[in-house]
Predict the 3D structure of the following.
Amino acid sequence: MKIALCLLTYNEVGCVRLMIPSLDFSSFDEVFAVDGGSIDGTLDVYRNYGIRIVAQPSRGRGEAFRLAEKSTDADAIVYFSPDGNEDPSDFPKFRHFLEEGMDIVIASRMMKGAFNEEDISLWRPRKWVNNFFNWAANILWNKTKVYITDSINGYRAIRRGLVNKLGQDAMGYTIEYQNTIRAMKNGLKIVEFPTREGQRIYGKTKATSLKTGIVFLHCLLREVYLGGRQK
Ligand SMILES: Nc1nc2c(ncn2[C@@H]2O[C@H](COP(=O)(O)OP(=O)(O)OP(=O)(O)O)[C@@H](O)[C@H]2O)c(=O)[nH]1
Ligand SMILES: [Mg+2]
């Protein structure tokens, strides 16, 4: 089975400079980057390490996921944001599940054995909001007995072609939530393994909490409204 790693970035030069040299790509048959239009030197770092760059015509993680599927002939793509949040020591874990026939493999920050950025404090607003969105997706669409604990996490493998086949049209950070929901609606096979979430190693997030929460709510309500339709 051919598995590609897709690096996702938008102006992350500080992160990629620190992280790319330390990554072990041996679990993958191909590595490429889909970039949202960085102007800060991120692309030079990729060039220095011989990483193929796919430039997005317009911004957004949704656009990046759709473009990634058109940019490789791999059977599945592992999406990875090289900013410190996602643990590269998980790289070898995806293949086993994909070769077993899973459609989507999610690195979960919420399941037993996992660690979430907020687990060190008692005040966990982001985890609580995430868990609301997890609960809604499971209650409404999960037809299996296995509860999906991290339906919105970006660190995941998706069998290539599914994002387009599921008619996914989310533009930004809701692409993964829409991916999980539509996979549930279609009875696809989703599996999770526990991961450790790290701190961002450089720079700032592009996703502000309140705005992102509202966009997620809109995504959820739209999926309720659409039911079995794609649009
Ligand atoms: N390809 C692509 N990647 C993007 C785009 N926008 C953001 N990203 C990347 O997506 C990843 C996740 O975005 P972040 O801003 O880190 O969001 P977050 O992980 O919720 O926030 P932090 O906890 O602060 O890291 C990062 O690697 C970004 O550079 C885009 O338009 N295109
Ligand atoms: Mg991040």
About this structure: The pocket of guanosine-5'-triphosphate (ligand 1) is lined by residues 8-10, 12, 34-36, 56, 59-61, 64, 81, 83, 85, 200, 205-207 (CB under 6 Å). The chain has one domain: 3-226. Strands lie at 3-9, 30-35, 52-55, 76-80, 104-108, 156-159, 190-194. Residues 209-226 form the longest helix (18 residues).
